[in-house]
Amino acid sequence: MNHASSGPNTSFFPGRSPVGGDHSPRWFPSVARWLWWGLAIRLILAPLTSMEADVSVWWNVVHHTTQGVGLYDIRLFSYPPVYGYWLQLVGGVLHLLGGGAGALGTSFATGASATAATYGTVMPTVLGALVFKIPMILADVGTGWTLWRIALRLGASEDVARRSFAWWFLNPVVVWVGSVHGQIDSLAAFGIALTVLALLSEQWVLAGAALSFGVAVKLSPIFLAPMVVGYLLAPSRRRSARVWGGVVGGALASALLFVGPELSGRMLSGVLSRTAQVGPVGGLEWTGIARSLPVLSGVYTRIAHHFVSATRVSNWLQIIAALGGGVATWRRPSPSRLLATSGVVMAVIVSVNLVANPEFTLWFLPFVALVAGGVWSSPRSACVATGLMAGGVLIFYGSLFAPAYYFGVLGAWTGYPGPASVASESAFLARGGAHFFLWPAANWMRLDLVASVLVTLGTVLVVREFLRIDSRAVDVVGSSRPVSRRMGVLVVGVSVALVTLGWVAPKLVSTPTPTLVTTSATPSSVTIHTTPSAGTVVSVFRVDPSRSVSRVVFFSDPTYPYVSSDAGTILGTEQQVASSFAQSHVSTPVSLVDARTLTSLLPHLSTRALLVDLTGVVPTSVVDSRVLQQWIRAGGRLVFGGYLPGVYASGSAPELGIQQVRQAAGHPAWPILPRGLTSGYYPHESWATRVSPWARALNIFYPEVMFGVRESRLRHLGGVSYGNSNGTDATLAWVPVGRGGLLVVAGSDLGEYEVDLGVALTRLVATNALAAQGLPHSTSATSGTVTLAVPAGSSPLEIVVTDANRPLWVWARTVSSLGVAS
Predict the structure, then answer these.
(1) Which of 182, 183, 498, 566 has the lowest CB atom count within 10 Å?
(2) Distance from CA of residue 311 to its chain's centroid?
(3) What is the predicted pLDDT for the residue at 705?
(4) What is the CATH number of the domain that holds 542?
């Protein structure tokens, strides 16, 4: 057996043929028929479909780029930066052409229309849905090209290489994830496949650069690194400075290009906070089975209640799998072992993930396509496995949302399918239609369970095939045509242009500089000149400067259970506030503390500080010491949220459940929060529709989901709503306690609205609203010059300008007299 990286162009297996020299088949003529079919399918689906949860993020990045906001300046984009450069490039081009993000989509106020209530807050246009997915479509083509090249490199025939391309490019999962869902895993898969091809082709610089590129798209390709190292430890390579220098140099140069421009604390915090999200457990693979199968419900419940520990175990299993793959490749650093081990490791990474999202399967599907294409002996099992996984993934998508939901773009612009179709399908699924239609009463036939079983079976089958590769493979590595120098220059040039233009785009955007000039004043009114805008609001209110917030402290501690929250949400909101402070030129420091630090800090914490606890948990040690209560009564202010505000525990999950029931009945577990303040559970989601005076003054919108704060009780307690209201329930409510008080954050799903909450907290601090005396006087500034009545009182005035369309635009000034100031 030949373990070297090059060898004779002969083969011991059918379906292999000599390759190399001038007689190597050319890619485009070889795959043209399958390529055109795959592109046609994608170009039909891409403009008409979307999944709002992800596409809304892409649209918002473009929207903020047209306003001069950087990729990580506002916490919307929580991925490494490569795809973000594309979005910023699109935003920069739109701005240069005099347009805006409206050309790519429409943003709706939450719950403001049937479209928003059905699909979400952003509906892309046909152009937008296509533009967002162009990189994914190109990446699918690129991955297919690399698989074709890998097959030939391994000595396979042109027919086998063509089939390998087709098993990837026409795979329904690949098509759906990139061209319907709009997720970026296709780019990560391209990085993985290109890394393997470069290693087999002995293009060491490209190998390191491709691996870095993959990690700069999503962090998952980093698990391929141990196999790369193991492969380089072959006797013929381990002492070669050229080999190691090429891989390391390529990786560093690629990292400098793709990550360097955005490398900052904001980027690292945003990306790492995503990996810290540990709340939800489920998806596909075994966690989906445990969640749906009654006999395993106890296992799932135990994992869900101990998700912090379970996530740590999952992370260690992934690390161990990657290191084990590296050792296996090191022991036999051959092409077949590299491919087989890489496929096994990436499949294990997906399988042990507590949240095995369907798009994650793209991380190992390139290796599956090679097996299904017939690179190694009989591909029958791999073909069956591919079919099982494709069926399972599509069924899962169908059970996750109504099938018509994904065609929202088509419905929004043609009228079919309309919101009514989505609503009827959703209702069918909600009342039991998620069960297979022939057995509507059988829980073991739920669609999500069927999907998880199919994907798990498919994964087991492909892992079995990967493990069999070594026993039947003969490593015959052909000399297929290397990547031409011209193509290399083109790729480098395009990459540099993408990164440069994408990074520079927000900085070239000419945004209006907010102005605030007091042109005239009397004891009863003040005239203010500011930058005119349809979304601009000018407000005036009295403040007590001694109550201005001097410090913001976030509490987060994985030792305690997070109640409908997670470490990623806390860190994300903290990062959002810190970034917004920097953009708004607010010098107030922001920090993050755990339970032990908080306990030692509270006795000495200034009452001008703002303590933020979004975990839904106040540690027993803090409550029992009574220091927190004393600090609040002395003037401290606590922002509290996370499911039903008022729940605290350091005990078991059943104790939390009992306290949640008591809280829903108006009996909070924490006596400081008055009884009857929080509302109970609503049968359906409800959204804030009535704007409170403060919400209007500060352009705050924080959506309420299922839970709220009763305004009648709030007024009785002398409190005030800082956010929007739904009927008689507030979303952000201030409750006075002694000289201090609590800002209660209502809503059951903080993770979805951390940007809204971060912006709301920024505006409350930046404008001195938490030091206000009385209600604000506000008006729109569409003309640029407004006159406002001066609130009664003798304390200083705070004059504030905010823009609903620019969440980072907050302009405030304090004037101590009514004299004219500029």
Answers:
(1) 498
(2) 18
(3) 64
(4) 2.60.40.10
